[in-house]
Amino acid sequence: MGMTMAEKILARHSGRKVVSAGDYVTAEVDQVCIYDSIVELNEDMEHAGLEGGLTRIWDKDRIVVLIDHSCPAMDKNVNSAIKHVKEREIVKRLGLPHFFDVKAGICHQVMLDKGFVAPGELVLVADSHTTIYGGVNCGGTGVGEQELAWVLAKGSLWFMVPPAVKMNVSGRLGVGVMGKDVFLKVSGDYGVEVGSYKSMEWSGDAISAMSLDGRICIANQSVELGAKFSLFECDQKVLDFVTPRARRPFTPVAPDADAEYESVIEIDGGKIVPLVAQPHGFEVVKPADQYENVLINEAIVGGCANGRLEDIAMAAKILKGRKVHHDVRCIIGPASWEIYMAAMNAGYLQTLIEAECLVVHPHCGPCTGVMGTLAPGEVCITSTSRNFKGRMGSPEAFIYLASPATVAASAVTGHITDPRCFL
Amino acid sequence: METKIGTRIYQGKAHTFGDSINTDVISPGRWMREGLEVLKLHTMEAVRKDFYKDVAPGDIIVAGRNFGCGSHREPANSIMKVLGISAIVADSVARLYFRNGIAMGIPVFSAPGVSKIVNEGDEVQVKVTEEAVEVTNITTGAKVFGKPIPEVMRSVVEAGGILALLKAEMEHEKQTSS
Fold first, then answer.
1. Interchain contact B49–A (C-beta under 8 A)
2. For B69, which of A40, A251, A340, B94 could close a Cys bridge (C-beta 3.0–4.6 Å)?
3. Which residues from A are below 8 Å from B33, CB to CB?
4. Among A24, A56, A368, whose Cβ lies nearest the Cβ of B150?
């Protein structure tokens, strides 16, 4: 019996020729990353009686540490500022070579930009959206800080080999339809547990034709479907991105023709339209034009879900020569400085600023309620990762989730809008 | 590694919640940076205001599907200990919340159907053995079962969490090398 991509990655990293769904393995990890929660990790280790807190790191070259969530420190009681000081001290004490202070951007995009992830690898980050690396054929998954402490000491962790769901997206996506809409189609039609504890493995003509940015968005958002991994095959688009950046030689994985899937989901990509998930989750999804009576106060393009160049280019295309509606504040948050610079060089940022968008520095704030917070009763449409109740401020606010195209179109009109009328 | 898990029993008054209770609801981001004692006052407030006032030590959370979905944030697990919740049992538990719970020694279990047999305020017993997670509604006598904790996780549970296990391993290494 052949193997899925997830089985191949876990087999390779556990020194086995073959593994099957349901097996438990101890797998060696290629790369880890943690942000300011390294401070809690250090304190938790001290409380657990591990003298000196975090002292042992199996390979200092394999850990990236950065500051991206509250960045620069924004809270009035300076808790974040104090935490950042402690974080810098830990990095200095341990002599960690790959530290990115408040200047780099969102962890996952920094990891991608700077070549810390590559096809066929196994990467763990203390963050749920780590499934994102599947967009470049890399087995990425989230862990908690305390499990990461184990990984930092040992360089390995146990995993259940996940059963796989084959996600076959045929046809071709229409104009104004983005990776985000594919995710919303799946969450709306198949629910938020379709990938629970599983590897979602994507294929089909629409996926082959899709941009790398679109795939990376889907991989990122797959954690909202419960996924452990969300894997795309390695093609020329992946190689063009990864090869000049990768820090290590790498070997991609492809599924065997006779790999065993727990189920196969067929989606006609040509039938997907711009979609919107209504508050406060991903389950209730309808075409954007069915929400046209929803007035908005805030519109956000950004985050690790949709702060890449394609997303900013799309927003610029729709907002070029137009203005953000006078009742709306529109936040554009590139995911990293590399993307920020590329968007600047392409003229997108000028277009967006002329349209009266607020172009903010790369960090997690717009997605996590650290900035641009919502008052009770306010309505936001966002292309960041989550529309959970209370995520962006008041639990009495309403967050709709959609693609950068739909968000930008809505920012122009002041109500939720199908972007195709601007394209 | 050969370890055995003894029978563990948790019993207390049930607080019931619905499906997809995410970690932004359990641990709202805007209060998370204020420390656990402040966070406690806001846990679950998006769906149930002043939840902390209703909780007595030993109480059990009973929830629907996909409990703990969303962010990996550990305060969403550790706040349960601060509140005095002895165990969480849900129809299903999101992957990261489950792994964090085991790693942190904060008991969280899946038992499909549990949300159907428990009402707010019922007395509930969760019995964890090598064979199953057995949930009994003491008030009504109804019972459901969940799959046992995977064997590989038992050593973590037995040690009381992954940091305790790491400490034991590191001490063992030190002894054997000296």
1. no
2. B94
3. 70, 75, 79-80
4. A24
B69, A370: Cβ pair inside 8 Å?
Answer: no
Q: What is the pLDDT along chain A (423 residues), one digit of tens a residue?
A: 899 999 999 999 999 999 999 999 999 999 999 999 999 999 999 999 999 999 999 999 999 999 999 899 988 789 999 999 999 999 999 999 999 999 899 999 999 999 999 999 999 999 999 999 999 999 999 999 999 999 999 999 999 999 999 999 999 999 999 999 999 999 999 999 999 999 999 999 999 999 999 999 999 999 999 999 999 999 999 999 999 999 999 999 999 999 999 999 999 999 999 999 999 999 999 999 999 999 999 999 999 999 999 999 999 999 999 999 999 999 999 999 999 999 999 999 999 999 999 999 999 999 999 999 999 999 999 999 999 999 999 999 999 999 999 999 999 999 999 999 999
Whether B25 sits inside 8 A of A368 (CB atoms) is no
Flag whether residue B77 sits within 8 Å of chain A, measured between CB atoms. Answer: yes
Sheet-wide strand order for A358-359: A285-287, A275-277, A398-402, A379-382, A298-302, A329-333, A358-359
Q: Could you report the predicted ipTM of this complex, rounded to two decimals?
A: 0.96
Q: Which residues on chain B are in Cβ contact (under 8 Å) with A56?
A: 170
Is B66's Cβ below 8 Å from some Cβ in A? Answer: yes
CA distance A172 to chain B (A): 30
Does B163 contact A149 at a Cβ distance shorter than 8 Å?
A: yes
Single pTM value for the model: 0.97
Strand partners, A28: A156
B91-110: buried (b, 16+ CB within 10 Å) or exposed (e) per residue?
bbbbbbbbbbbbbbbbbbbb
The separation between CA A397 and the C-alpha centre of its own chain, rounded to angstroms, equals: 23
